[in-house]
Amino acid sequence: MIDRVRPHLVINERLIFEHSSPGKLGYQLPDLDVPAVEPEEALGPENVRAAIEHFPEVSEVEVVRHYARLSTWNYSLNTGMYPLGSCTMKYNPRVNELVAHIEELAWAHPYQPEPLAQGAMEIMARLEAALAEITGMDAVTLQPAAGAHGELTAILMMRAALAKRGNPRKKILIPDSAHGTNPASAAIAGYAVDNIKSSEAGVLDLGALEQIVTGDVAALMVTNPNTLGVFEENIMQAAGILHAKGALLYMDGANMNALMGIARPGDFGVDALHLNLHKTFSTPHGGGGPGAGPVAVKKELEPFLPLPRLKRSAKRWAYDYKRKHSIGRVRAFYGNFGVMVRALAYILAHGGPGLRKVTLDAVLNANYIRKGLEPYYELPYQSPSMHEVVFSDQRQAQKGVHTGDIAKRLIDYGFHPYTVSFPLIVHGALMIEPTETETKRELDRFIEAMTAIAHEVESDPQMVKTAPHGTGTSRVDEVAAARKPVLRWKPA
Amino acid sequence: MLDAIGARSVEDLFAHLPEAVRLKQPLDLPKGISEYEIVRYFRERAAENASGYASFLGAGVYHHFRPVLVDNVVARGEFLTSYTPYQAEISQGTLATIFEFQTMICQLTGMDVANASMYDGSTAMAEAAMMAVRATGKGRVLVARSVHPEYREVLRTYAANQGMPVSEFAYLPEMGALDAEDLERKMDGLTAAVIVQSPNFFGVVDRVREAAEIAHRSGALLIVLFTEAVSLGILQPPAAADIVAGELQSFSIPPTYGGPYIGIIATRERFVRQMPGRLVGQTVDSRGNRAFCLTLATREQHIRREKATSNICTNQALLALMASVFMTVYGKQGLRELAEQNLAKAHYLAGRVKPRFGGRFFNEFVARVEGKLPDQVNKTLLKRKIVGGLPLARFYPELADSILLCATEMSRRADMDRVAEVLA
Fold it and tell me: Mind giving me the DSSP string for A330-343?
């Protein structure tokens, strides 16, 4: 029996501004224990604003219901699986939320004196050490706020290291399968981008690489496993080619879930990489952030890490601000500490053996899905899959149904869509990453749903093209939204 | 599952990995621990941090009371564990809250459009500078020395390799406000943006209109930064700005030792296509009902790659939701009253501790410590369970005898009296 979604009570809800009426209140403040101050007097009449026009005026119960109702319009990991390739949407353990909310951690001010922040500093130091061990690198900065921010940080460090050697060079090489953030980050760091084509097996083409690496090339940015879910088997040779010409190897660590306890970037020639704590290390996505994007580097890049660095002096932790080769700050304060707490909790819960088990299970689950869907969907690259698998819509396209349509139909079976139309080197890509936290039962349900859709494409393509049919909101007109942007509410 | 795949063991699935890349020994990390042990570990670390202190630290991070509803809403798994709302049909909850967020930021700042949020205030300011460079076709950035020092450091890191020279202009040593003459002197036709903060790092309500006139006369844009969002409940919005960048930590984001926080960028209609970050727009679904979706994505990295307006991918959706709940709970009247309470507390403290600068201030001000060293004063205060103000020597050598004090609605009169006694 195949489970499809059933209609459910979805309460219509206005925008908060449409609930407002003058004088309604939802807050309480204590009485002042000091004399009140006349704003015009203290600030100058020219500096005092009039009431904020159309700002909400609602009662407490309206606030609660408003957000509760809106929340029911969301799909979430709490309700089901996100087979989003490259996003590693795994279960977010709730104990991590609890520890991140402990008062002395949540209310710590970044400028409180170092002797009164030893617990926070110890947490950061322990996380740095664990991430260095997992990646086989020498040093870690936790400052970057997200993956793309980590990429930028690492490229700035590589640039500084090359400049110190005498020449920062001009170009960064990026495979055609890379995430869009890679070229965008390289451009901000002042580099031109050269795209390199993948081989027929979907991996780095060593011959092509050999030709393209010149004295102008600063680095190669590679994702490993790459976005096809394929391990770059030639990674050590690629590192050799780059290093021989004085260039560096950067790894996008988005797919680290495929490698923990199995292989370490530091052992296969990588000079710098970023990690996504909100992917591999289970911190919640929160509808699109916050994340954190620590960067791990080899010894040669260590002097260039962002300021400040943690250092152990005598009996306690301190910050070192005096590092003359540092690229400087990439963010105020020390990074997304609240995200770090959750990630460390995850690492402590699993330990070394547990993290290896995570990777084994993630790869097992992806291969189980690959086997289950191979009869129905085109597999453009036959190379072994790691933690994710990429199909194409080639067969379904003959019926006029594309990857985006199949994805929308998946919603009617109770699943979040897979990653659509990425990587770009696969035309009409379906990129699927189940993660280790899904059960066999859930994977079977997913395979059944995808199989049923493949049959529906044959029998009723039009129905698939207009999916989803079971949602409160039907297909959304994104073209109209972009043509005439309405980006804020205004009174009618 | 292995049978279905046709493998004998899970290790078989890794057989194609070259021998040379394989990790030969187990990871050098202890074995996993239970939930109880995890909680105990973090409680022990928390106990090594400050506990039970009153604090007068501000400087970009503020202690404000967090309405109970905030955590109540963001703890809902439907918000906490959802993904970026690319699939609009099943993400209307997140999309609607971001649309409301963008609207409230416009109302607060007096701008026409606001994005779905940035990593934090410091990166928002750097991104705003890059945005001004794109919009004007010029390269130089002039930033006030009274802008948060760590924000200026981030700006320099971002600017270093983009042909974007950054120079600074002075503040008035008596007023603590920007030095308009120095700005005027340093302006030239190559300047893309002037960046000022208000209230500035010293807490002083700065001369935004003057800076705007000077910037606009030379064809530069004015970027106005704020780090204390509660001030917008009472202060004039920076209407003269072309771009507003800010930090919303004050809107019920716990200080959390420096992050995660939430930055914003708001601007005029005509600059919207130069904006970084995600934007939510209103549209309709195929049944004609109002709906929301991410829009104007052609600015973004996953479409434009190296030609994108920014490399930013994530925003801070969950924190935008926290800030939205905060703004909704306090509302029109509450945000004003909250701001008035901050004003009253800081002015009570300032009445007992003479401020160093003559400029008008909201909830922070610089105080000179006479006859003692700032660190000594703070040591004395620590013994009384009070974390004093931020000593300014690290950022401003000329203010080595001064501290930056902040009072909010959470500061108690008795603690402020103690600070005054020790400082006297």
Answer: SSSTTS-HHHHHHH
